[in-house]
Specification:
The complex is a heterodimer of chains A (79) and B (194). Helices cover 49% and strands 6% of the residues of chain A. Chain A is built from 4 helices and 1 strand. Chain B has helices at 16-23, 41-48, 57-65, 75-85, 95-108, 142-151, 158-167; strands at residues 3-12, 37-40, 69-72, 115-120, 138-140, 177-178, 186-188. The chains are: A mainly alpha (79), B alpha/beta (194). Chains A and B meet through α3, α4 and β1 of A and β1, α6, α7 and β7 of B.
Amino acid sequence: MKNDLTGWTVADVTEALERGKIGHADAMEYFDIDSYHRLVEIMHLNGKKMPGHREMRLSPATVEAVRAAISGGTVEVDD
Amino acid sequence: MATKRLSVGVIIPDASPLLTLARIDRLDLLDHFAAPITIVDQVQYEATKPENDPSGRVAAWLQAKGNTVQIAPTVVGAGFKAMLERGETPRSRNLGEIAVEEYALSIARLQSPPFIPLVLFEDPDVLDLALARVKNVHLLNTTAMIRALAHDGKLPQAREIVHAINHARKSPLEPFEKPARTRRLRSVWKDDKK
């Protein structure tokens, strides 16, 4: 179902899209664009992520290396 | 296979992480590291140039850190400084990378560096430098570092910090990491050694 975004601000639209309250088509019509990549770019420029965006998980090795750097500890590696 | 324990050394081979954190006034995030931080002399020059660091935050942070941040001297950096002192105006473009290459080669000459290099960078060109091929090197960018700091709940405001970084950029700084190609990488906390 399409939403009427008349009177909405850019902040309203990007926030609603990030929260999944409105769909891609609504937002693309609001911004008057026909490129999904452009929509992603607009979202990122406004500090928002696309709905369903899953943040990259860091490898355990990165976490351990940073943890060792914080603690001043050591890491065990194969010789 | 035999294993050994190595400490971690943080290396910052381009000015961008320092400038990114300076722009949001969060250079203090680097103070989390008890491990030594190494910055090559030419990169220090780039990071503290008034054109790049108009607020002077990087210079102030470096001064406050004293000798806990090691400035690695290079022939490239010394030559550049000498030219400046003679009143010349040498082009500094790419000199940071060349200086880092010089520093990396000095590490790479050691068949097995005495520490795990944890490289904090943003410039993709760093991936093409010899530094990225040093044994056990572990690379990550600023947002990956913030995510890692947040991993154990040490930085609850990580999301807001990343938003602040991205707000000041044209495109978001997605986390990037290139873990060391080791079979095992397991930290041993100093507190656990008791």
